[in-house]
Specification:
The chain is an alpha+beta fold. It is built from eleven helices and twelve strands. It is globular, with a radius of gyration of 26 Å.
Length: 368
């Protein structure tokens, strides 16, 4: 119903724009033009002002009717892999109506094994027991209790003032089992071929770098405080269940951010627009700037992988790269750009020093 309503709204908006252009000719202004003046992109400002309502989709397909995500990743089929990831929601609808605008939750009660094989708790255990995972580089041990977020990157036989070193499997699992600490595995694609093939194929679709982290959380615990990220996130629930609370950006200034937020207190984030328990096979998409927090339910651990894309992939980043190069080329060709500005340029622009600042008398004064 949400998808159909949004389609109807888009169609109605297009009809109004077409009518206005017919009446006013080439000078007609579109809603996109107005959004651009307000700093909006792809209708993201309108989506936030309308309540940041999520799209919720139930996938009714049994396993026999689903495509093979591994095959798409192996073959480098970019569009097919992205469509598989969010199916049965249309990739075209995702790009036109959802991307950068609102969260998307795909539930797969009919096929809990949809994401089987990409990663497991046993994989994480094997990496730790191999003795090659360094704290802060490959793994973090974290907790969030009574509003306090802490990192516990130290082995049981280490002094508090020692430099971080390779994680000891026994120490890590003791914190996981006895103290309710979560594990964050950084860049797990280094050790899991299926993941790096997935990321490589996603890069072909987005034409920017992609990455992933893995989060393993013990029952009835939470590893991280509320925050927002500077990436578009696709959360893939692999094992167990986890309760997710998703909140809109706190302001238009914080939507589609280029940098992640600090940790927030509970009274700083408002009410969630989506509260859902992710189960195996489910996928949750969150645009950059979406405030979120997640906690594991009672009875079993939770394992999910977060695929990230579009970090530092904004128009601002494009211009920061393109403009200096364009200026260098223009300077090489146009002698006028190599002339000095007039001595009173800053005063003409209104940013020069005021007369009250002194600076000498007569012709010898400081013109700055």
């Amino acid at each position: 119903e949400n998808v159909e309503k949004i389609r109807d709204d888009v169609a109605a908006a297009d009809a109004h724009v077409d009518a206005a252009e017919a009446l006013l000719g080439a000078g007609a202004r579109s809603a996109a033009d107005e959004d651009a003046e307000d700093g909006g992109t792809h209708g993201a400002v309108d989506a936030l002002r309308a309540g940041f309502q999520p799209i919720v989709v139930e996938d009714p397909r049994p396993a026999k009717d689903c495509e093979d995500g591994f095959a798409h990743a192996e073959a480098g089929n970019a569009e097919e892999l992205m469509q598989w990831l969010i199916a049965p929601y249309s990739l075209d609808d995702f790009m036109r109506l959802t991307w950068e605008r609102r969260p998307l939750y795909v539930s797969r009660n009919a096929n809990k094994k949809y994401l089987d094989g990409w990663l497991s708790k046993e994989d994480v255990d094997g990496w730790l027991r191999a003795g090659k995972m360094r704290y802060g580089v490959n793994v973090d041990v974290t907790s969030y209790v009574n509003g306090v977020r802490e990192t516990h990157n130290i082995n049981d036989d280490s002094d508090d003032d020692e430099e971080p070193r390779f994680a000891d499997a026994a120490s890590v699992w003791k914190k996981f089992d006895e103290k309710g600490c979560s594990l964050r595995i950084l860049h797990p694609q280094r050790w899991k071929d299926a993941l790096w093939k997935m990321l490589s194929t996603m890069e072909r679709y987005w034409n920017c770098s992609t990455g992933c982290n893995v989060y393993l959380t013990p029952p009835n615990s939470q590893g991280f405080s509320p925050h927002f990220d500077d990436i578009d996130a696709f959360v893939l629930q692999l094992e167990g269940k986890k309760t997710w609370r998703v909140y809109p950006p706190r302001s238009e200034e914080e939507m589609l951010p280029r940098y992640s937020s600090p940790n927030f207190a509970q009274d700083e984030i408002g009410e969630p627009v989506l509260e859902v328990i992710l189960e195996p096979g489910d996928v949750l998409y969150m645009p950059r700037g979406t405030v979120h927090q997640a906690s594991c339910v009672d009875g079993e651990h939770s394992l999910h992988v977060t695929l990230s894309t579009n970090q530092f992939n904004t128009w601002a980043d494009v211009l920061e790269l393109a403009l200096p190069a364009a200026i260098r080329d223009a300077v090489a060709e146009l002698p006028a750009l190599r002339r000095c500005p007039p001595p009173d340029m800053l005063q003409r622009l209104g940013i020069g020093a005021s007369d009250d600042g002194g600076g000498g008398d007569g012709d010898g004064g400081d013109r700055r």
